Amino acid sequence: MMKKINLLSCFIFLFISNCIWGQTFIATTEYTSVPLNQSFDVVYELKGAKADRFIRPDFEPFRVISQQSYSGGGMTVIINNKVVQDGSGSQKWVFTLLPTSTGKYTIGPAKVLVGNDWLESNSITINVTPSGSPTTASAPPPPTQSKSNKPDTDRSKLTNPVVDDEIFLKAEVSKSNVYLGEPIILDYYIYTRVDVRQFGINKTPSFKGFWSENLLDNTANVKTTEKVINGKRYIVAHIRSIALYPQEIGKLKVDPLEVEAIIVRHVAHKDPFDLFGDFFKDPFNFDPFNLLGPSVISQPQKITLKSNPVVINVKPLPKGAPESFSDAVGNFKIDAFLDNDRCFAGESIIYNLKISGTGNLPLLSAPELNLPENFQVFEPEIKDAFSKTSKGIAGSRTFKYIITPLKAGNYTIPSVEFSYFSPTLKKYITVNTPELNIQVFDAVGSKGAQATIVNLKDDIQYINPIKNLTIFNKLPHNNLFVILMFFIPLLIMIIISIFYRKRLKILTDFTLQKQKRADREARKRLKTAHKYMKENNAKLFFDQLLLALWQFISDKYLIPLSNLNIDSAREVMINHNIDESIIEELLSFIKECQMYAYAPTDTNDNLEKFYKRAYEFIRKKI
Question: Taking the model in full, what pTM does it have?
Fold first, then answer.
């Protein structure tokens, strides 16, 4: 008994030592040189620690076409850059990048927060060539920080090797012959006839040529069923479901998924002090802390499962696509509505264009509006309401266009035409929004808004003049009083006239009005961001914070939001004589917000610091 307690103590000591001294965070890639339009993977791997937050680098000029994250070591899966639960292995974040221009580029380091310390990865340099074949990188250098020793888990050295049909990993697809952009559901199942203590994804496919979306909640327990194959009963666990949207034509191969699992075998009746003696009757719902329950002694064995590869044949879409077709594949409907159909010239209203249905919704781009003359339109804000189903992504994507009529009149916003390809019907379908009418009034006080009075004699009856004003007869003949009674009303009329003319100029001058409105609109955005900060909703908080900053710069310096980026913002503020140190501080803050938007924080203090800095920029510095 004492011997087993000492063994347990040594095990705990070695585990803690490994966690303390084995922290490494490195970035790797398979290639040092790639041709233009050749995608490649960048992998960030953290070993020996649990990451509380991950901040990805700025990948410009590369475009991120897919990303996954997971934990190795046979423990727990991580999804969408969110650490669900740390295991004894590593955590990885995998980004598939596509070059957009030739040249030699350096991808900066990523950052992870471990406890109270930030770890920073190495940088990666990629040479993008106009054509040719990719050049494979040499093996990454061994981590210098790690002091841990990895246990030998070579399957050839295990005393009880696994029989092939005892446990295996299978990949199944909903269809293998699809059109470009048509969704495919890829499911992974573990079939087992032995007890599984723990399992976790060790290596995920890169899904090259696909846009991917995870459909399962990996924080919940896996669902299990029973299935009989060739007279043998298996427990089947549905461990992962992915929606794939093909972006390339031809035969696309999905590499195998690798899963590490710890299985146990029945040996004999259990000693209650044996550390590894408890295993479950349900292979995927084991409680590792229930060490004293009635069971048998079991021998843990770590194995690696690999799924079958999957090949998808992607066909090109048929010819003859309408001009309004922009790669939408699925089954959709479209609608449009206005938040308000009446306004004054120079005021903004919101035109909502909503596309709903099933298909490649997350990939839909904003349709182009055909507005009447004298209308200004900004880049739309996108609002998504997606739900994940067994058939892929469903829901709606709403494009909110801010449009501003510049002159009074009655206008009609023409119907918007939207075309999509239906894989079920195998043809293109075109749908239209209704036409919408807008009534625009002259700005208050303009010439068009001044009412004219005609036929005065017919409208107002003649009034006999008052011959005697007895009150003036009783007033003393005071020259000062008479002067004041004459000049005070005249002064009031002059002040009112000046104020009236200034107000009229603001209402009729669209540029001046837009600058005046910049601060007001920014404060509304900040107020919305403050609400999300109180709700601790980091994603929506950063969305509103960034929108407030970009919209303020757009309105204040009269640059369309669609033309606004880091470089154009720097140029326009330099032209307006803004101090360069303030400009760089603002753009650095915007980049920092963009990075945090990919790894939202749950700490209210951090959100409040970002809120105060944004408020200071808008109200004081720019």
Answer: 0.46
